[in-house]
Specification:
- Helix content is about 65%, strand content about 0%.
- Among the domains are: about 5-55, no CATH class; about 145-235, no CATH class.
- It is mainly alpha-helical.
- Helix 5 runs parallel beside helix 18 (about 320-350), helix 11 packs across helix 12 and helix 12 (about 220-235) packs across helix 13 (about 240-250).
- The longest helix has about 30 residues, at about 380-410.
Length: about 425
């Protein structure tokens, strides 16, 4: 049954016109929608409720397709893709649009649960007591843990020479004026090391107070670098809290990783022509010049074998189009987001990603194997071989992408 919002009031007979306002084609009064462009046949001015209703409708209105899509996606892995690419387009929702819809619903619900259940986001701030920090910084008796930061600032040349002679120095200070003339990379690298050492020695987490003590400009880049230096120390002090924070970001990682994996996934299903088949095709060519060439004594067989080898090497026989492989991958990852969506509520009450972890480790791989078997209609041995190979490819790609993801996540922690 089609979902209806505020379209019914605009669909009334009294608001229908004889010309489509979008494509300007002639319409009959019985036409609720334009048969040429599909726009609603209505001359009624848009109200706020109409506009909001059409906006929501455009996002989630799949008619009865949503029921069939959910049903087959959850319980018929692989078959939904097979039916869709074989022509049952109106039975199911568009794979790419449905993937976006499910992932957006997941992120919205996750954000909402973070808002109403504060315990879900407490792990990221654990160890930082705002009241304690505020009272500490407002306390006139607060002392920096170093003997005297002024001593390190005023005698940095002597201390640097002492450090160069392998003598122990508690803290090595470098004025900002000496760092700023260096390249962008060297400058910020030295600042990050200095800030990290200062933060770990003084235990000052407030970037502005630290920059005041160091006599460094409170620029955006300096504040950001100091915050990152305290993040580094925080990760070392509380690795479990960071792992928990990182785990919650996995869906974001999967969302952006899906199209990347789809690109590499297709490679395994590009099938090359056999050498014997290539020779038969060349022999059966209608090109007279090529036929005379391969019929030439001595030179002909050599030419035939070279051309057959080149055809085998460069000609790829595609049983399915590229987009059909991509649709398969998007269906699989849509199922992953559906599983994470179903696990979101119980995990929120438990305070840990128990159900989502079990789903990713146990249910996800089994679903992927069954989907491969049904969609590509291959034997168990061939499917298992490709399943293992794809998991290795997935592991390699996810390692490289995961390192980048880890850096970005740590920088925003």
């Amino acid at each position: 049954m089609k979902l209806k919002f505020s379209l019914s009031s605009r669909n009334k007979l009294q608001y229908r016109g004889n010309i489509c306002l979008n494509c300007e084609r002639t319409l009959k009064i019985t036409h609720q929608f334009c048969p040429y462009c599909g726009q609603i046949n209505s001359t009624k001015k848009l109200s706020l409720s109409n506009y909001f209703g059409e906006f929501i409708s455009s996002m989630i209105n799949y008619d009865s397709r949503i029921r069939y899509t959910l049903q087959d996606l959850l319980f018929k892995p692989g078959k939904i893709t097979l039916r869709y690419v074989n022509g049952k387009r109106l039975t199911y929702a568009n794979p790419f649009r449905f993937y976006l819809s499910i992932s957006i619903i997941y992120f919205l619900l996750s954000g909402f649960l973070d808002f109403i259940i504060p315990e879900r986001s407490n792990t990221t701030t654990e160890g930082f007591d705002l009241k304690e920090m505020t009272s500490q910084f407002n306390n006139d008796d607060f002392k920096i843990a170093l003997d005297s930061i002024e001593y390190y600032r005023e005698n940095y040349n002597e201390l640097k020479a002492k450090a160069d002679s392998t003598d122990t120095v508690n803290f090595l200070y470098t004025p900002e004026s000496e760092i700023n003339h260096k390249s962008f990379y060297s400058r910020n690298k030295e600042k990050l090391i200095l800030f990290k050492n200062f933060a770990s020695t003084t235990e000052i987490k407030n970037s502005r107070q630290a920059l005041d003590s160091l006599r460094y400009e409170k620029s955006r880049i300096n504040i950001w670098l100091y915050d990152r230096s305290t993040t580094y120390n925080k990760i070392l002090e509380e690795p479990l809290a960071f792992i928990s924070y990182l785990t919650k970001k996995i869906p974001v990682y999967l969302f952006f990783f899906t199209p990347v994996f789809a690109l590499f996934f297709v490679i395994i299903y590009f099938k090359r022509e056999s050498f014997a088949s290539a020779k038969l095709r060349i022999k059966g060519t209608s090109n007279k010049l090529l036929k005379n060439l391969i019929s030439t004594p001595y030179l002909g067989p050599v030419t035939l074998n070279i051309l057959a080898f080149l055809r085998k090497l460069f000609y790829i026989h595609r049983e399915r189009t590229y987009i059909e492989h991509v649709i398969f991958i998007f269906h699989v990852f849509t199922f992953v987001f559906l599983g994470l969506l179903l696990a979101l509520l119980p995990d929120s009450f438990l305070g840990q990603e128990v159900f989502s972890s079990l789903f990713l480790v146990f249910v996800g791989p089994v679903y992927f194997y069954i989907a491969l078997k049904r969609f590509y209609r291959e034997g168990h041995l061939r499917t298992l071989t490709k399943f293992l190979f794809l998991n290795i490819v997935f592991l390699i790609l996810s390692t490289f992408a995961g390192v980048l993801f880890l850096i970005v996540t740590a920088a925003t922690y």
